[in-house]
Design goal:
about 425 residues, TIM Barrel, eight-stranded parallel β-sheet, two-stranded antiparallel ribbon, 15 helices, binds flavin mononucleotide
């Protein structure tokens, strides 16, 4: 590594306990074996039952958006910068006035707890140790209060608003009471997406056994013994712990339990206004794709907008956030922080997003791949890879700090003549 880990640009990250010698050994093994996120993904594919892996990895319908998210990042080229002394670089930055190790936070991923026993806790621990925020999803298998026990955690809570608003507002209060830093309202999941592979695999969220998934799990005994059995011994079938008892119907293909009351298809701007009143800390709105929506959210006092197509998992054919970033920057840049997600797999993707005006990115699947290989140590490995790649791209493009990453670092292709 370079100065990335040592230069203190924007304040001091909290001290965290040094890794144990077993963790350090494991980290070294991972570093030798998994050289990029694609390696971690492949290992994850082998480790997890097919139904679980595809639930994490795949998109919706024809997976147009899933594929386009990667294609959109690939289509953006970078420019080397000549003769800049980049010997002292740093990937550090800040968000909401607090330092972070790089411009990246971990996205909410419901049922991350199926990657590893208490997977959400592992991801949150890794984020705290690495120095980036972690987002707990409403459908998580681990509770708000348990996540709050993570030492020095910078925790955000993601909200799916239910029909019964008072139940959702009670969750917001729990997150506030537990000291969560920020709240994200997800707006791109008004209806349940169509994910045919879940049905074919017999996979449902919440997890249920059926003949197909039993066969699948039997062929992945390590996951059975290291993930499922510990859950069954400790508390029974893993389930979304924030959902009220009785709300958890079988919902193949959906991350959202099927019971009528848990559907959030009547969410409006009034709900955002109510949340702005309820939540005292930074508030984000996730799943924004239209400039006028971003402008309206800003006028209502949100602290950041998150451009997202849910990692290609919801509306198939939804535009890729990196493509519309310049348009949204033109509308609300300078008035709010803009964060994007969907398709980040390399540190150079982070540089491209920041160059086009994003304050930071969210990453979903990278952490899931890492967690499914080695819990918190695997997530830290994924983050280390991304940071190293970002640092490398910064060196080539002549950016010594995140603040120096600007539009001159990228090339979008031939532009129309003025
Ligand atoms: C398995 C999985 C579960 C997800 N669950 C949620 C969720 O509960 N709430 C939410 O707002 N987004 C959810 N997302 C979307 C992520 O927050 C994020 O938008 C997406 O993963 C970004 O794309 P990437 O995976 O390519 O980084 C989920 C994504 C995945 C992969």
């Amino acid at each position: 590594m370079t100065g990335a880990a040592t230069t203190n640009v924007t304040g001091t990250l909290p001290r965290v306990a040094a890794p144990t010698s077993a963790e350090a050994r494991l980290a070294k093994q991972l570093a030798d074996r998994y050289l990029n996120i694609a390696d971690l993904r492949e290992a994850s594919r082998k480790r997890l039952p097919k139904g679980v892996f595809e639930f994490f990895d795949r998109g919706s319908e024809d997976e147009i958006s899933l594929n386009e998210n990667r294609a959109a990042f690939r289509s953006i080229k970078m420019r080397n910068k000549a003769l800049v002394d980049v010997s002292n670089r740093s990937t550090r930055t800040e968000l909401f006035g607090k330092p972070m190790a790089m411009p990246l936070a971990l996205a909410p991923t419901g049922a991350a707890g199926l990657t590893w026993y208490e997977g959400e806790l592992e991801v949150a621990r890794a984020a705290a140790r690495f120095g980036v925020p972690f987002t707990l999803a409403t459908p998580a298998l681990t509770s708000i209060e348990r996540i709050a026990t993570v030492e020095n955690g910078r925790n955000w809570f993601q909200l799916y608003m239910w029909r019964e608003r008072e139940l959702s507002h009670a969750l917001v209060k729990r997150a506030q009471d537990a000291g969560f830093e920020a709240l994200i309202l997800t707006t791109d999941t008004a209806v349940s997406p169509i994910r045919e592979y879940n049905k074919r695999n017999g996979f449902s969220s919440p997890f249920h056994f059926n003949p197909r998934i039993v066969m699948d799990v039997a062929m992945h005994p390590r996951w059975l013994f290291e993930v499922m059995l510990p859950y069954l011994r400790a508390s029974g079938m893993p389930r979304p712990v924030h959902y009220p008892e009785g709300s958890q119907g079988r919902a193949a293909g959906s991350t959202v339990p099927s019971a009528r009351t848990m559907q959030g298809d009547n969410l409006t701007w009034d709900d955002l206004a109510r949340l702005r009143d309820l939540w005292k800390g930074p508030l984000m709105i996730k799943g924004v794709n239209l400039p006028e929506d971003a402008a309206k959210a800003v006028s209502m006092g949100v602290d950041a907008v998150v451009l997202s197509n849910h990692g290609g998992r919801n509306l198939d054919g939804a535009v890729s956030p990196i493509e519309i970033l310049p348009e949204i920057v033109a509308e609300v840049g300078g008035k709010t922080d803009i964060i994007i997600d969907s398709g980040v797999r390399r540190g150079s993707d982070v540089l491209k997003a920041v160059a086009l005006g994003a304050k930071a990115v969210l990453s979903g699947r990278c952490a899931l791949y890492g967690a499914s290989i080695a819990g918190a140590v695997g997530v830290e490995h994924a983050l280390t890879l991304l940071r190293k790649e970002l640092d490398t791209a910064m060196g080539f493009t002549g950016c010594r700090t995140v603040a120096e990453i600007g539009p001159r670092a990228v090339w979008l292709g031939p532009q129309p003549q003025a």
